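Page 42, continued from yesterday. The earlier attempt failed because a stray header line got pasted into the input along with the sequence. Redoing it now with the clean sequence only.
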Amino acid sequence: MRIGYNPHKDQPQEQCEYLHQIVIPVYIPNLEGYFKDSFRIFQLCLESLFSTIHDKTFVTIVNNGSGDFVKDYLNKLLKENKIQELIHTQNIGKLNAILKGLVGNEIELVTISDADVLFLPNWQKETTKIFAQVPQAGVVGIVPQFKTYESNCGTVIFDNLFNSKLKFIPVKNRKALINFYDSIGWTWEYNKDYLKYNLALEINIDLTVLIGSGHFVATYKKDMFQEIIIYLGYKLGGCSEGYLDKAPLKKGYWRLTTYDNYAYHMGNTFEDWMKVEPSLEKDKEFPYSNFSKSKTVNSVSYFIKNRLFVKFISIKWLVKLFVKWKGLPQEMIEKY
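This time it went through. Structure tokens are written below.
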């Protein structure tokens, strides 16, 4: 039997005080084999996050079927208000866990990160700067990688094809680039020219961005998830990563990365270099909000930029012509 009137009925939600959301799914079932160091690395990930984000950041952790030791640790963080949202679930797959974290708020920017990312100072400020100065930006990564312009970048390359500020420029942080590929287990057999130049877009005298972005940590405009899918049938891989790739393209957004490196990928094995340095430049306030939003592009525009144009520019002789036109040194063109 219900008695009385619920005082919250028909009451509008208060305006959200947060301006940036972080969503991190985590699956650490035990401390054996592949997962031997994973909990220690996850703790470093969160410590680095807490030391580099401003007070208007809403942290969501989705415990995707981890062991009780992870659950207890996260419950403690929630109680201490170090994280603002905690979702416990069975192992439903990485992307389904991310989907749970995306809903329920209207925070403009959302960073989706793996649980083995070591965040560096100023990553949030540099990410926000790009969204503020590049209205077309929809995805912004913080770890430069090789040739990311080759994946899901039809829109940004098409829109800037005849822009002289779209060009190859020297890599800014060669050591960080090497560290990333070491962290994912690559041998040193890759083309070393990839360590020298990357395709970039010069926005203005104070801002240069790289074309494309990786998957393991990136920030998205939240409005691209207004029509969110409710379930993906893979625990990892399959069509799951494609969902996050296609969402910005359907809005006509560009996929970009910061020119310098602002995070490290730790992997599943602890190493001595992994530590959290106290941040002396932690943001005290968030200077930007109300980022420009895009409407869904029509099917013809989407097809031209992300199907027809991408296929056309992938022809071998056109690739060579493109990289030469955009300033890649002559001696690198044949094998780049």
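Notes: The longest helix spans residues 299-313.
Reminder to self: strip header lines before submitting.
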